[in-house]
Write a structure and sequence with these properties.
- By secondary structure, this protein is α+β, with helices and mostly antiparallel strands.
- Among the domains are: 103 residues, Immunoglobulin-like (Sandwich), CATH 2.60.40; 165 residues, Immunoglobulin-like (Sandwich), CATH 2.60.40.
- 21% of the residues lie in helices and 29% in strands.
- It has 13 helices and 34 strands.
- It has an 8-stranded mixed β-sheet with strand order 7-6-10-2-1-17-21-19. A 6-stranded mixed β-sheet has the order 20-23-24-25-27-26, with helices on both faces.
- Strand 23 and strand 24 form a beta hairpin.
- Bound molecules: zinc ion (ZN).
């Protein structure tokens, strides 16, 4: 630990030259490169502009699916078939497609299966990205126009060679048939608990082909959920007749799958801002006892979504309400009593995010209670039962936050988890503040990311958040809470809330239903907020730079000379500084110094007008920064008549 050098009483007569204190004399400018250097971003193009917006030539592929599947609850076998209509909107001719077969994470021969990677420490929990046994997906056939197409499966991906190349503007219809024995535990993303099924990543999904990387194919190791194209889905799910299905998309055949009473209650829920029971607790318990023979087919349609998931159980309680035309639904088992509040929590979450980011774009927002730690799909989220209201709200609002990042703003989580989990964790804090306003949880949650800094940002062990999720040892920090702290400081300390909020919501609108990259985000924020932020992204995203601002000393002035406050940036990270000044007459002043203070080097002298008798200086008086050494943050004038204190 290094104490501040204290220089006091150095009154200067005649000359205006004041020797700077301590070793600052040797430190003129930055050594080893300025933190303000421009980042080396990919060149702007007519696809992605220098302003960080989609350009006039922006394109992205489209993938529409028509799927038919049945689930046999005695064998756990999911049998599926259907068509992927793939639209090549790129200017390139494609001779092959890549499919993601995430289910093959459960195949002992997949990369993750062979390596048998141990569970990842995740905060104070562990995250098991394995399948704990189980098996992969069997592709039974892939055809185009009735003719079999060559394909090879490599672990969790498959290459499909097209007999006829797909030209720009062309569409290919790939007919697929597959089966998959649903695992009880599906890498924390899906699975089942008795008769409750949460089914996701369950069909062959075409990989993203984009202007940045071409085909985005990498083995799925469990971390980093997925990166998908948008499209329309028509899905028919055949399940035991006694089961209720919740899914991405809108039910097309309510007359077949719902009772008259359920349809009437749903109609009422569409006019109600508070929860209406579509299936009551008693009805759910009775349904559990009743064996209903046969099967029933539920038909769903979803527009402009990047995936399709579903859940089913015979004994769901089902509540629904409506916010601004959006149906808010909660499905839970009778034992999940905390969930009687979940519909209200969902309603507040969807409204909160819609009002701040971009309006929720889908006809319903549905949450299902179940065995997963929490997982998000378009219109549908999985949330565990929860041990307290606070715990339930945190996960519930977090999974709904994903409807914005990445369901609406579709960045690549397999590469940039901070743009997905991180943006989401940042917005979740505001949602908790609204729901729990006046309660300890709501009134203190904004301190959580800073509190976690001390526990997770361990010097020498921390990794840059720019790394992909499957290279992160501490994903909880690097992908969730460090990005939340970063954006919180960008908002409150660098740009100010008004400037940040407008730029961030404009970014969300501009990239809705599109694929932004980090460079697009950086450029957009700089353009919309009118700031150069290379230093900020470099410090927070591309490095593990640490912050240590210090009061190096004070040269007291007199009635006609300025007082100098010597500040030093001892760490590799630069940030703005806030100073609380106390004067001899007891008055106080707060100074907020913009980050440009460090442009000429790590030493900065703030000049206080003559005639003010300074007695104390304190850096970061609100304690908002993750400063490495608080011992050098303050300066106090020695008692009058005595020399500098001898320490
Ligand atoms: Zn998440």
């Amino acid at each position: 630990m290094r104490k501040a050098v204290q220089v006091v009483g150095m009154l200067v007569f005649g000359s205006s030259v004041v020797a700077p204190p301590g070793d600052a004399q040797q430190r003129i400018g930055w050594t080893g490169g300025s933190p303000f250097e421009r980042l080396d971003l990919p060149a702007a193009t007519t696809i992605r502009t220098g302003a960080g917006r989609p350009g006039p030539d922006y394109w992205q592929q489209r993938a529409d699916y028509t799927l038919v599947a049945s689930v046999d609850t005695s064998s756990q076998l999911l049998t599926g078939s259907g068509t992927l209509r793939y639209h090549n909107n790129s200017p390139h001719t494609l001779r092959f497609l890549w499919l993601n077969l995430d289910a093959n994470l459960c195949d002992p021969q997949s990369e993750a299966g062979v390596l048998s990677v141990p569970p990842l420490l995740f905060g104070d929990a562990v995250f098991d990205f394995s399948c704990q046994g189980g098996s992969g997906m069997t592709l039974e056939h892939l055809t185009v126009g009735g003719h079999s197409v060559g394909h090879r499966v490599y672990g969790t991906v498959a290459r499909v060679d097209l007999a006829t190349a797909l030209p720009p503007g062309g569409t290919v219809e790939l007919e697929m048939a597959w089966r998959w024995t649903l695992p009880e535990y599906g890498y924390g993303r899906m699975g089942r608990d008795g008769t409750l099924y949460q089914v996701a990543q369950w069909y062959p999904r075409v990989a993203v082909y984009d202007d940045v990387s071409g085909w985005n194919v990498a083995p799925f190791l469990g971390a980093g959920e997925f990166y998908q194209e948008y499209g329309d889905f028509a899905v028919a799910l055949t399940v035991p007749a006694g089961y209720v299905v919740a899914a991405t998309g809108t039910v097309q055949n309510p007359d077949v799958v719902l009772t008259a009473a359920q349809r009437e209650r749903l109609a009422r829920a569409r006019r109600s801002e508070s929860a209406v029971a579509i299936v009551t607790a008693d009805e759910a318990r009775q349904a559990r006892q009743r064996a209903v023979p046969g099967t029933r087919t539920w038909r769903f349609v979803a527009h402009n979504v990047r995936d399709f998931a579903f859940a089913m159980a015979p004994d769901f309680r089902w509540d629904a309400s409506t916010w601004d035309g959006t149906l808010i639904q909660t499905f839970y088992r009778p034992e999940a009593t905390l969930w009687e509040e979940a519909n209200r929590m969902s309603w507040v979450s969807i409204k909160h995010f819609s009002e701040r980011l971009a309006r929720y774009p889908y006809p319903h927002a549905t949450t299902v209670e179940g065995p997963n730690e929490g997982m998000e799909y378009p219109m549908l989220t999985f949330v565990p039962r929860g041990g307290s209201r606070e715990e339930l709200y945190w996960v519930l609002t977090h999974e709904f936050g994903h409807e914005w990042y990445p369901m609406l703003v579709n960045s690549n989580e397999r590469l940039y988890p901070w743009m997905d989990e991180g943006f989401n964790t940042f917005i979740d804090i505001g949602s908790v503040e609204e729901y729990f306003a006046g309660e300890a949880y709501g009134d203190t949650i904004d301190l959580q990311p800073l509190h976690l800094y001390a526990l997770h940002a361990l010097a020498g062990r921390e990794q840059a958040m720019a790394l992909p999720p499957d290279e992160q040892h501490d994903l909880f920090w690097a992908a969730y809470f460090k990005p939340a702290l970063m954006l919180h400081l960008l908002r409150t300390e660098v740009l100010g809330p008004e400037r940040f909020d407008r730029a961030f919501s404009d970014y969300t609108e501009a990239w809705s239903f599109k694929h932004p990259t980090p460079a697009d985000f950086f450029r957009f924020m700089e353009d919309a907020a009118g700031a150069q932020l290379d230093w900020f992204w470099r410090g927070w995203i591309y490095s593990t730079a640490r912050l240590d601002q210090a009061v190096a000393g004070v040269v007291l002035g007199g009635d006609s000379t300025e007082t100098e406050i010597h500040l030093r940036n001892r760490g590799a990270m630069v940030m703005p500084a806030e100073l609380a000044l106390t004067f001899a007459d007891g008055s106080k002043q707060t100074l907020r110094l913009p980050v440009e203070m460090w442009k000429l080097g790590p030493d900065f002298v703030y000049r206080l007008p003559a005639g003010r008798s300074l007695v104390a200086v304190e850096l970061d008086p609100r304690g908002v920064y993750p400063d490495d050494d608080h011992d050098n943050d303050t300066w106090r004038a020695p008692a009058s008549g005595k020399g500098p204190p001898g320490r």
